[in-house]
Amino acid sequence: MSESVNADPAELAKFSELAHRWWDPDSEFRPLHQINPLRLDWINQLSPLEGQRVLDVGCGGGILSDSMARKGADVLGIDLATKALRVARLHALEAQTTRIQYREISAEALADEVPASFDTVTCMEMLEHVPDPQSVVSACARLVKPGGWVFFSTINRNPKAFALAIVGAEYLLKMLPRGTHEYAKFIQPSELAAACRHAGLDVLHTRGMQYNPVTGRYWLSGDTSVNYLFATRRPVA
């Protein structure tokens, strides 16, 4: 892999090994299936998806991409994990999701190719897996049209996030495979806000995502201490 590509080969290999399980709602990807309706509804409330051209950066097996296409958007999902993209394409065929395409390309390369081409850009649960998050944020800002929305979600970096997202989710509850996350790669909201400002994006809304292990329920709240989402917008020139 070229050194210029903003990707960690170990991270790509990790998700490729699990690729065949992306669409099994009882697999390691169960949390993604469970939180997807929350993410989708929040995005759709702020930036109604029907009729939009939407980009999903780091789409993996296509869980969010597919659901946005079913809301009436024309969706392009991009990723650098070849096996996950194969699974995404196969699912789109089987589910007959027609308003969706997938490409194996980085956000940076696509931004060079088709800048300011999308009404909405999503980059969910991806920034904590790349060597240079700022580069991805900047690419997303270049890809969205002026006035368009860019949505991010990631994990805060603090002792509580370490306890819940790694010790709890990976080791105690076994909700995720061990090694899914590295604490040092977690991103504090202040850091992501600075990255957005540097990229020319206005941070308009922030939400936290919480989980109750007893009920198995997820919900959005004002608590950004562990998982959180940003809604940003590229100003109209």
TrEMBL record:
The gene is ubiG. This is Ubiquinone biosynthesis O-methyltransferase. InterPro entries: SAM-dependent_MTases_sf (IPR029063), UbiG_MeTrfase (IPR010233). It catalyses: a 3-demethylubiquinol + S-adenosyl-L-methionine = a ubiquinol + S-adenosyl-L-homocysteine + H(+); a 3-(all-trans-polyprenyl)benzene-1,2-diol + S-adenosyl-L-methionine = a 2-methoxy-6-(all-trans-polyprenyl)phenol + S-adenosyl-L-homocysteine + H(+). One of its GO terms (biological process) is methylation. S-adenosyl-L-methionine binds at residues 39, 58, 79, 124. Its EC number is 2.1.1.222, 2.1.1.64. PANTHER family: METHYLTRANSFERASE, UBIQUINONE BIOSYNTHESIS O-METHYLTRANSFERASE, MITOCHONDRIAL. Keywords: Methyltransferase, S-adenosyl-L-methionine, Transferase, Ubiquinone biosynthesis. It comes from Diaphorobacter limosus.
